[in-house]
Amino acid sequence: MTTINLREFYPWYKEDQFIEVSDEVAGTLRLDKLYEAAHWRRVKRNKAQYSLDMDDGIEYTACLSEPTPEELLERKENFCRLCRALNSLPETQGRRIDVCVILGKSVKEIAETEGVCEDTVRQSIMRGLEHMRKIF
């Protein structure tokens, strides 16, 4: 068993936190740390610090950060609340919101598929979203 400091491997640890892990886990964590350092050296050596307006993916890589456990838990809770709000709607409203908002179909396409007036679909979606806001 090897003792490691979690602060060295995870940026969200602000204080030293020592734990014992197996030798394989410690070795894997150290190899990953070395690989990451080598990657950033290659980026710097090859002058891959371009303008963020180039749309070549560097902006996305530079701005992307690993979410903290708290952020992941908050996302999961929000997703569960959103699902509960969607499931609390009547079947027709829920289906229309699902197709319109999540799948991205237009109100006109939904109305043609269901054989109803566009205004009926639009009002149904608006009432459903309003009901979801109250619950969410």
The CATH superfamily of the largest domain turns out to be: Winged helix-like DNA-binding domain superfamily/Winged helix DNA-binding domain
- Overall geometry comes to elongated
Helix/strand order, N-terminal first: EEHHHHHH
Report on the biggest sheet. Answer: 2 strands, antiparallel
Strand content: 5-15%
CATH class of the largest domain: Mainly Alpha
- Rg, please? 24 Å
Structural category is mainly alpha
- The CATH topology of the largest domain is Arc Repressor Mutant, subunit A
| Cα distance spanning the termini | 47 Å
Number of strands: 2
Named CATH architecture of the largest domain: Orthogonal Bundle
The number of helical segments is 6
Q: Give the helix level as a range of percent.
A: 55-70%
Q: Going across the biggest sheet, name each strand in turn.
A: 1-2
Q: Please, what is the average pLDDT?
A: 86
Low-confidence stretches: none
| Count of domain modules | 2
Write the layout of secondary structure elements.
Elements (H helix, E strand, L loop, with lengths): L1 E4 L12 E4 L1 H23 L12 H6 L5 H19 L3 H12 L4 H8 L3 H18 L1
Antiparallel strand pairs: 1-2
Helix pairs in contact: 3-6, 4-6, 5-6
Give an account of the 3D structure.
The protein is mostly helical. It folds into two domains: 2-63, no CATH class; 69-135, Orthogonal Bundle (Arc Repressor Mutant, subunit A). It contains six helices and two strands; from the N terminus they run ββαααααα. The protein has helices at residues 23-45, 58-63, 69-87, 91-102, 107-114, 118-135, and strands at residues 2-5, 18-21. The protein has a two-stranded antiparallel sheet. α4 (91-102) packs across α6. The radius of gyration is 24 Å and the shape is elongated.
